[in-house]
Amino acid sequence: MLRNRSAAPADASAARRSGQDRPEDVIGISIDWLFESSLVRLNRWRCREAASGITGKRQQFWRVIGFVHSGAYELRSPRGTALIDPLRVAFLNPLEPYQTSHPCGCGDHGSSLIVRDDVLSEILADHRPDLAEAPTGPFPFPSGPCPTRAFLLHRSLLQELQGGVEIDPVLVEETALQVAGKVVRAAFPGRWRRRSAPASPARRELAEEARRVLVREFRRPLHLADLAPEVGATPYHLCRIFREETGFPIHRYLTILRLRAAVEALARGEKDLSGLAFDLGFSSHSHFTFAFRREFGLPPSRFRPSRSDLRRARI
């Protein structure tokens, strides 16, 4: 399972101001972190409350999008009160006091998505610039709908993170931003202004420059927070433009580059698959094998280019 505990947390200053620096300290909640980078964080949580009444005040250290997988709870915040169930997400602001209760019974559990504040504000500003700088932050209300597509993407990502198969951090970050975008969009129904995105030399050049960086650097571990500054863009803007201009999400393009290079190495007779995996930027032999099998239909250990393969390729 991929973890990056050395990375700075999103809005780490809030944690420092609180005098605590680990979210396991949130009262009444047990948290298992699945992924942590400087851009996004994902966790599974379980409520430890045994009584259904209103809890004491507590606070989160970051701006949280909270999903419920089972059960429900009532969220009481300065921005209002809302029942959070599997069809709704909670919006929690950093250091904002809130309380919960359990009118439907205790034992609820779920997961959280934390996106760095500047990226979350950019997602909102892309369609609703009038709300991006609101005093309450990107979320003027305590909850919003959880659309089916966001729900499925989020749960699939959690399943991958918990499945014991290493995942490229770019894939995790890119998928998490997709989930956040769909949730934020659903929170403002009927009031979105879709910006036109005409083809332009600047957009094409941004995508081309990103491709240059990927081709040059694909052998090392990459994060969106590292890639975006190299091309002079924000992570969210880069993800959107790259997909629109190339037809690929960044993580997919990066993986294909690595796998095509693997085919070349295997064709030359490379036998050390673990060494090849690490040389190509994969986090482990198993990660490499999983990606190779998914792309080509067989594991790298069985890939042996033959003359018949060559003849078929020339037809």
Order of helices and strands: HEEEEEEEEHHEHHHHHHHHH
Radius of gyration: 22 Å
Integer tally of domains: 3
The CATH superfamily of the largest domain is Jelly Rolls
Low-confidence stretches: 1-21, 307-315
Largest sheet: 6 strands, antiparallel
CATH first level of the largest domain: Mainly Beta
Strand order of the largest sheet: 1-2-8-3-6-9
- Cα(first) to Cα(last) distance is 42 Å
**Based on the structure given, which CATH architecture of the largest domain is correct?**
Sandwich
Rough outline: globular
Would you tell me the structural class of the helices and strands?
A: alpha+beta
Strand content: 15-25%
Give the rounded overall mean pLDDT: 81
| Percent in helix | 40-55%
CATH topology of the largest domain: Jelly Rolls
What this model shows, in words?
A hairpin with a 2-residue loop joins β4 and β5. The protein starts with 11 loop residues before the first helix and ends with a helix. The strands form two sheets. It has a six-stranded antiparallel sheet with strand order 1-2-8-3-6-9. A three-stranded antiparallel sheet has the order 5-4-7, with no helix packed on it. Helices cover 42% and strands 16% of the residues. The protein is α+β, with helices and mostly antiparallel strands and 315 residues long. The longest helix is centred in the middle third of the chain and has 18 residues. α4 packs antiparallel against α5. It contains twelve helices and nine strands. It has three domains: 175 residues, Sandwich (Jelly Rolls), CATH 2.60.120; 47 residues; 62 residues, Arc Repressor Mutant, subunit A (Orthogonal Bundle), CATH 1.10.10.60.
